[in-house]
Amino acid sequence: MAATGRRLSDDGVSGGPARSSLADLDAFWQRTTIGWHTVYLGLLGLLALIIGSSGDLSSRDRFTGLLTVGVLVVVYLLIGRRLVGTEERGWQAVVQLLVSWAGLYLLIGMGIYDAYFLLFGLIPHIWVFLSTRWAVVATFVLLTGLALIEVGHDGWNTEKIRDVAPQAGLQIGLSLLMGLFITSVFIQAEKRAALIDELERARTELAQTEHSRGVLAERERLSHEIHDTLAQGFTSILTLAQAIEVALDRNPGAVRDRLALLEQTARDNLAEARALVSSLAPVGLQDATLPEAIERIAARFADETGLDVAVQVDGTAPVLPANVEVVLLRTAQEALTNVRKHAGARRVTVALRFRPGPAGAATVAVVDDGQGFEPDATTRDRYGLRGMRARVEQVGGLLEIQSTPGAGTTVRATVAVPRG
């Protein structure tokens, strides 16, 4: 019980800004110590009142009794009061116990048997000031000594010993039982509070880990969004600017059309930037269905590159979750960007297919007739395919890359359609 106080204070601090269970238990123990002080000092005050008003004591015995009670009060205020709720088990605890029990022995030896009710405070002090092992020994020794004092006061005879021995044995047994029980309760309460604090710390750490993981996932999502929108838009602007520069010398009449397309691309890119900052859906999906958005990006791609681009829509578009539509649209955009950068193609087909039924799925595929490549382990994650694959897998989809050198490339993303 003495060990409880200070350990609780130390562990309570480590629980963080929130009040821990150990700190709550420590606060309860600190409040309980006030009760210890009140009970013990109240018992001493009551005993002083009884001794002072007793007519059965001589003046000398009354003075000695009051002086003894006064010494007990002073020693407790100077030493014992500070020991309650701490782990101090040095000479101060020994002095407190020796003085208090010596005072009880003196009072009993003088025949002041009303002092017996001091045991309500003195026996718990043994378990408060000493460790469990020494408290067991001290309880046996001190209560045995009290029994010997009582026997000696009435004379050393066999009859008195037979009267006192059962009473002393009962006192020792009950004191040990109560002391061990209360100590066990406090130890279990401390362990339970420590376990609760450990669980709270683990939950806090888990929440912080999940938060960090969410931040990383959001950063990755934003990087994909920037790559699939702003970066591609700037690439288109750069391509148009270069085309305008060439057209200035060869075909000045086409410059106006190129400038108009350049302006529209810049406006769309600005709108994408604003949507990204506002965490909105892609601009293409804000006022159009997924097939319409696919057709728009395909038409723009054709205008920018001059390639032959065909759009095929198979099936009726179901109501898809916003994140699925975003993934399919971004996949088509990224695949077209790869065609522009690497394929050297003349014709591109963008196919959007919706398969109804319990095993329904939505598929977007971009097929080109370009130079293709060997889709081995090294090239499979090149050209932004890693980010594309991660985006598709985040919504439970599958990204397939099919390509043969000289025979073009097919990029296909398939996402299951949730049942309505």
Structure notes:
This protein has 420 residues and is an alpha+beta fold. The chain folds into 2 domains: 2-207, no CATH class; 290-420, 2-Layer Sandwich (Heat Shock Protein 90), CATH 3.30.565.10. It is 69% helix and 9% strand. The chain has helices spanning 2-14, 21-53, 59-83, 91-109, 119-129, 132-153, 158-250, 255-277, 283-286, 290-305, 322-343, 385-394, and strands at 308-314, 347-355, 361-368, 398-403, 409-416. The chain has a 5-stranded mixed beta sheet, with helices on one face. Helix 11 links the parallel strand 1 and strand 2 (347-355). Helix 4 packs antiparallel against helix 5. The chain crosses the membrane at residues 34-51, 63-79, 99-119, 126-149, 169-187. It holds the Pfam family HisKA_3. Residues 221-419 form the Histidine kinase domain.
**Euclidean distance between termini CA atoms:** 63 Å
Low-confidence segments, given as residue ranges, are: 1-18
**What's the tally of helices?**
12
Widest sheet: strand ordering: 1-2-3-5-4
Q: What's the multimeric state?
A: single chain
